[in-house]
Batch of 3 targets.
Target 1
Amino acid sequence: MSDGALRLAFGGLSPKAVDKHVDRHGSIDAAVAAITRGRTKLSTTVCDEVRVSGQIRTEELAEIGATFIEPSDAGFPERLGAYSDAPRWLFAMGTPPDGPSIGIVGSRACTSYGAELAEKYGRAAAQSGWIVVSGLARGVDAAAHKGALDVGGFCTAVFGSGIDVVYPRSNSGLHRRLLEGSGCVLSEFPPGTRPDAWRFPTRNRVIAGLSDVVLVVEASKRGGALITARIALDYGVPVYAVPGDIDRPTSAGTNRLIRDGAFPIFGPDDLSTVLSLVTPLIRPR
């Protein structure tokens, strides 16, 4: 574990801002040195956070049962290393499970029908031996995780906040179940980080990068689920979508995905069949 990376990670900067400072100063350690000496235009708060030693940060993480992992560490998901915009580091609770993974995403404001479907899809994926990856957000994410956990499946939740900041709080019980069930929670952002809106799009690329396929259950014309789908397509990850009524706002995004080439999924049994066909084609990563 790099002391410099750990200290810089606690600054809570966006990945693009981190890249900017590392590129400008030549290395992570040089960027940390410049920040701690006040040679940047970063806020006093960020500079003060970066000044704290890595040893103290490691002790703080241990207190909440968390770890800090980098691409060179054994616990870092190898598949993320295939992408040029892979995270430089991750904070983790639990150990990332290994195996074929499906990202199941959708609207926070999903319909009751969409939530029911997401739960069934999560259950079907888990019963097929697939890890369910999502964001543990309200709506489709939470339902998919619940479905997988109900049948003893494995889940990876990727947060747009600190790994100890469950958003919404109503999902705290699900968060606890996920960790007790050998699941994992990941985030690029340090503990205590608030779920600011700008953090979620960058979180979505991690969901896409961890997934061998992505399923969008319900989505409006705009939103995080479509961002995840677009990034997945850029990564070469197959995208599936659930068709819906043409006049239902939460089906507008999924119907458009299908129109533009996403594969339609017509129910849990259909998903199980697709996953059984896809599994042999997944290259070890």
Target 2
Amino acid sequence: MQRFLRDDRGSDVDTIAELARTDDLLLPPVVLTEALSDHMLPLSLVVRIQSFPLLEFHDGYWERAGTLRATLRRDGLKAKLADCLIAQSCIDHDIPLITYDRDFRHFVRAGLQLA
């Protein structure tokens, strides 16, 4: 999302822009939080980000996210808390994650689809 907000170039940005244009973009709540954490974000972008629908948490989400993180860390893999929460949201909804961040490749074996 940060690359999209900065108007960077890339297939990830193009995909997000197309989904936003067609009203098909869904955000994990943690992505919304990360985006709104940018204190330099112009109000117009704040309003736009807040207009995107959020993925809902399913029962047991927090437990699954914690177990996912523990499993990856036990295997010696990088597993930032925010990344685990984002990945688990996408896994639970069976939707691909559009990302430029290679750290998410570790979550594929747990069921995360990368766009």
Target 3
Amino acid sequence: MIALDSSVFAFLAGATGRDADLVDRLFAAYLPPVVLTEMLSDPKLPKQVAELLVQIPRLELLPGYWERAGALRAKVLGQKRRARLADTLIAQSCIDHDVGLVTRDADFRQFVRAGGLRLVGGSHRVA
């Protein structure tokens, strides 16, 4: 099982690359709820794409999610690293379900070291 970050949906606009190919081939993926929110927030999102997105299964929030997400973000920030709130929430969803995240966003590397996030389908060297 894998989860998808909004950054990989560039393939919908014709982008190519290893992650876009992976998403195209393995569309048996899950969306963290925050990713769905990010995608549906785009005022230019075509209606057909929005209809497709809401059909993709979502990772359920598990009890204690908010507390674990807060602790994860505090750990990353304590290491003087960038930890955007949405990225933290996405990472925690994936960590909770032990699913790899397909992303083009290098900021997620912080959550590999701090929380055990697994990144899939790209070269994400952890600094």
